[in-house]
Amino acid sequence: MDYVNAFWVGGLICALVQILMEKTKMLPGRIMVLLVCLGAVLGAVQIYQPFADFAGAGATVPLLGFGNTLWKGVKEAVDQNGFLGIFMGGFKASAVGISGALIFGYIASIVFQPKMKR
Fold first, then answer.
1. Percentage of the chain modeled with pLDDT above 90
2. Backbone torsion region of residue 24, taken as left when φ is above 0, otherwise alpha when ψ lies between -120 and 50, otherwise beta
3. Rounded-to-integer distance, Cα 52 and Cα 55, Å
4. Top-confidence residue, 44 or 91
5. How many angstroms separate the first and last alpha carbons of the chain?
6. 97-106: which pairs have CB atoms within 8 A and are 24 or more residues apart?
C-alpha cells in the first residue's frame, strides 16, 4: 500500500503544479520557490511529517520535501548553535542531495556531451 500512496500523492502534487502552470502566468522558477517555501511552512506548523509518513516518497521527493528538509536542518542547527544556526542548518541538511545532483549532472554532461542551441 506504501507504493500506491506514494504514487497517487506524488501524482496529485505534480498535477496541481501543472494546473498552476497552465492557469496562471507564474513562471516555473517562482512555482518551484513556492513549493520549497510551502514545504518549509508545512514543516514549521508540524503538518508535513504526518503527511510524509502517510505518502512516503510521494511527499518527500517533490520540492515540498526539499523545503521540509531545509526547515528541519535549520531548526536543529538553531537548537544547537543559536542564531548562527539559521545560516548553516539548511546547508548541512541538504548538502548530500545537492552534491549528488551536481555530481550526477556533471557525469551526465560528460557522457552525453551537450551542445548549445543555435
1. 42
2. beta
3. 5
4. 44
5. 48
6. 97/66, 97/69
Q: Residue 92 — pLDDT band, cuts 50, 70, 90?
A: confident
The answer to which of 9-23, 41-55, 94-108 has the lowest mean pLDDT is 94-108
Q: Which residues contact 53 (CB under 8 A, 6 or more apart)?
A: none
Contact, 57 vs 71, CB < 8 A?
no
Residue 71 grid coordinates: 526547515
Number of domains into which the chain is organized? 1
Asked, for residue 102, whether it belongs to a domain, the answer is yes
Residue 117 forms part of a structural domain = no
Q: What is the pTM of this model?
A: 0.76
| Residue 118 belongs to some domain of the structure | no
For every residue of 34-64, DSSP letters joined together read HHHHHHHHHHHTT-HHHHHHHHTHHHHSSHH
Q: How many CB atoms lie within 10 A of CB 79?
A: 10
What is the extent of the structural domain holding 25? 2-112
